[in-house]
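Narrative of accomplishments. A recurring question from our advisory board has been how the design workflow behaves on a single, concrete structure rather than in aggregate. To address it, we present the structure tokens for one chain from the evaluation set, followed by the sequence designed for it. No filtering or post-editing was applied between the two.
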């Protein structure tokens, strides 16, 4: 157990935070060495297992991330963009692998991760599941094979608590489609349609976001032309797939050179 990589989970009290904690605790390939929450949170100072309503795990929730990161070989982070940027600096100081599942990051925010990647491994992905990353590769290949007679729409559905739209996964799929077509997504993105929008522009990549209930995650990539449609689909029914993927990324990054990676690298796709 002593030789296993130590993992810190940020945003410990969140749904993904708790799922990640359980995944690490249940793993025989890593050990939980830290749990981080924001300053003033009710969990700070408590054993994280007790705070989650279970047995003590011997890990106290802290609001001092650098102290926690210094004891770890990896940090798994599904929080918010501003927090993730700060965590990237601290993880780099600790030379810990920083696995980022945070979504809703702008291009400017993503660019702010680059300095940390000079000193530590960063693995960032809009989605950590094997199936979604396979879907991403398929989307790129299909988009490359079809011309602009096929309209591309990315349709995603999530639970009603999700705060960003389109989802990080939807944008990842849109980027893959744009790459397949040899264009920049920013130049062809079409989202948030409402009212009299006019006809759909040829070559655009559209996005639709559905929010409701407890939907874990559903993503369709629709290629629609006159007389035929192709639909690539991924349905997630268990949030644990994201936690397992994140842990896989944390372990994969242990012997890698500093830099920025994604799940395509982790999965060898």
């Amino acid at each position: 157990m002593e030789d296993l990589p130590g993992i810190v989970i940020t945003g410990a009290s969140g749904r993904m935070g708790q799922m990640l904690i359980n995944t690490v605790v249940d793993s025989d390939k890593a050990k939980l060495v830290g749990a981080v929450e924001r300053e003033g949170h009710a969990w700070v100072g408590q054993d994280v297992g007790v705070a989650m309503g279970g047995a003590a795990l011997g890990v106290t929730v802290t609001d001092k991330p650098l102290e926690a990161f210094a004891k770890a070989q990896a940090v798994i982070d599904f929080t918010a963009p501003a927090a993730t940027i700060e965590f990237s600096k601290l993880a780099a100081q600790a030379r810990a692998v920083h696995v980022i599942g945070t979504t809703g990051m702008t291009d400017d925010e993503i660019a702010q991760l680059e300095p940390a990647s000079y000193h530590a491994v960063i693995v960032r992905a809009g989605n950590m599941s094997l199936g979604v990353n396979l879907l991403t590769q398929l989307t790129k290949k299909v988009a490359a094979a079809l011309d602009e007679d096929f309209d591309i729409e990315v349709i995603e559905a999530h639970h009603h608590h999700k705060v960003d739209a389109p989802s990080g996964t939807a944008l990842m799929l849109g980027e893959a489609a744009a790459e397949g077509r040899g264009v920049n997504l920013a130049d062809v993105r079409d989202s948030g349609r409402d009212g009299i929008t006019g006809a759909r522009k040829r070559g655009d990549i559209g996005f639709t976001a559905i929010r409701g209930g407890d939907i874990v995650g559903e993503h369709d990539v629709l290629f629609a032309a006159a007389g035929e449609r192709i639909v690539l689909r991924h349905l997630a029914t268990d949030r644990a797939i994201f936690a397992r993927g994140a842990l896989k990324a944390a372990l994969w990054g242990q012997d890698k050179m500093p830099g920025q990676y994604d799940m395509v690298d982790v999965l060898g796709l």
